[in-house]
Design goal:
Length: 498
């Protein structure tokens, strides 16, 4: 226990801020919703372009590192074999980094772009429809996963090469902060990381749980209410608390493997029983569009047209990836022992992007097919009843509809659990002074239940914009943290090579 003693100041500070934030939303829901709306507009106007450049520069930086001599650095002893098989490694990093959000947006994101196309395209035009699918894939592609991977570089180097048994963001910033990593500045960095993760987790759960509730309503007829959302949240919390209590090997790894097998099953069923040729053709077309316009997509902010499209979507997405990045970086670093830095970068960016694209290509194009062929009025359902209802209606059109909806609900619950068992695992790691093996069990379990507080509050006030705003706010300090982590990595490798 002495080796895994708690960092009580970080632990208690985070609890105080978490409780205060959640209580404020519960006690003053209308005021909280108005404040979030006003803050959203202000932040997007003032700092939105910063998020855009963070994404693009992260990708450029990682390409350079992977191609340089630093890419050959082994994370661990020279002859050490990777701790996890390639399949389990990919499964864990993908499930930690995405969660059920990939099912939500993969199925329905195109509908928002169909109704409000980018580039001032005419709604319903051929080009607008093509971009409606491609743009969602861009938002979950290489740039997004580069943001995730960047923090893993200094963390993995310190943990596996320098063998420092500390999984803290402040520790990874030590090459820049020096003695300040142990003082007030370091505590603030760790606190901002934890609060950002808790806020982003609330956003993810706030989006995904209504989707699961809509599936349960379709199967059982139980009315979708706030109390049903809370019941689902409790169920998910119990699942990922058991997983994180079991540890990395016995819990998180096994649940991630199961999740990937279920996801592959669902995608294969949709691909083979749905409009296969249409899905393949639209997917190929979308890859071509993204490849051809990749540089433009990474820098389009629409200063003249001022359509608001990049602000509403790309900047929100980049903020989402940024706020999760330190957490995912910690986790990628933890599970990548035995791999080279190049393997870690290329594997995470390529497999992460490909995994996300499968959902957008198969589920997204399937639902688009239903819209274009007047089988299901997907966009009309989104406008009238919301995205969760539209998603479940799409899945219900498959052969054995009720069975497929049931599989969809189970997959969504497990996807949520695989994200939040790793979230609570890393929160426990950050609130300990040292981590030898797994963090203390009671600490892991505590954070599993603490993660349920923000979504409980955010679902209470509801609304997609409120959820987006929380992510955009939480991402702001994470931008500074990402810069410090990139600088720390360069100092570390240059000092060791010189």
């Amino acid at each position: 226990m002495k080796k895994n003693r708690l960092d009580w100041p970080s632990f208690l500070l985070c609890i105080i801020f978490l409780t205060a934030m959640s209580l404020s939303i519960f006690l003053f829901p209308n005021e909280a919703a108005k404040w979030l709306a006003a803050t959203h507009d202000t932040l997007i106007e003032q700092v939105g372009i910063v998020y855009l450049w963070v994404g693009f520069l992260s990708l450029i930086f990682l390409v350079w590192v992977a191609a340089s001599r630093y890419g050959k650095i082994k994370l661990g002893p020279k002859n050490y074999r990777p701790t996890f098989s390639t399949f389990s490694w990919i499964a864990m990093l993908f499930c930690a980094g995405i969660g059920s959000g990939v099912i939500y947006w993969g199925t329905i994101e195109w509908a928002y772009y169909y109704l409000g196309p980018p580039f001032s395209l005419t709604q319903g035009s051929v080009r607008a429809i093509e971009w409606s699918v491609a743009y969602g894939m861009f938002h979950t592609g290489p740039t997004a996963w580069a943001i995730y991977t960047l923090p893993a570089l200094p963390i993995a180097y310190l943990y596996h090469v320098k063998r420092r048994p500390v999984l803290k963001i402040s520790e990874a910033c030590r090459p820049v902060l020096n003695k300040y990593a142990d003082g007030f500045v370091g505590k603030i960095i760790d606190l901002l990381f934890m609060l950002g993760l808790l806020g982003a987790s609330g956003t993810t759960l706030g989006l995904s749980i209504p989707m699961i509730a809509a599936g349960i309503h379709k199967i059982t007829g139980i009315e979708h209410t706030y109390w049903l959302d809370l019941l689902i949240l409790l169920l998910c919390t119990l699942i990922f608390s058991i997983s994180v209590y079991s540890g990395l090997e016995k819990g998180i790894k096994k649940l991630s493997d199961i999740n990937v097998y279920l996801a592959i099953t669902l995608l294969l069923v949709v691909l083979l029983l749905g409009p296969t040729i249409f899905i393949l053709e639209m997917s190929t077309n979308s890859i071509g569009l993204i490849t051809q316009h990749f540089l433009y997509l990474n820098t389009w902010i629409d200063p003249i047209g001022q359509s608001g499209f990049p602000e509403k979507w790309t900047l929100f997405y980049w903020a989402w990836w940024i706020v999760y990045a330190p957490f995912i970086g910690l986790f990628i670093a933890k599970i990548s022992k035995g791999r080279t830095i190049r393997e870690m970068i290329v594997g995470t960016v390529l497999f992460g992007s490909f995994g996300c694209w499968l959902f957008f290509m198969i589920l997204g194009n399937f639902s688009l097919y239903l819209e274009l062929n007047d089988i299901v009025p997907v966009t009309a359902i989104v406008q009238q009843f919301g995205a969760p209802e539209a998603i479940v209606t799409v899945i219900d059109t498959l052969p054995f509809g009720s069975l497929m909806v049931f599989l969809f609900v189970i997959l969504s619950i497990i996807f949520l659990s695989t994200t939040f068992d790793t979230s609570s695992y890393m929160l426990a790691a950050v609130t300990q002074k040292e981590v030898h093996g797994d963090p203390v069990r009671w600490n892991r379990l505590f954070w599993a239940f603490a993660l349920a507080l923000p979504p409980t509050a955010l679902m209470f006030i509801g609304g997609l914009e409120s959820l987006q705003t929380v992510t955009i706010i939480a991402a702001l300090p994470s931008v500074v943290i990402l810069f410090l982590l990139a600088l720390s990595f360069m100092r570390l490798v240059r000092e060791d090579k010189d």
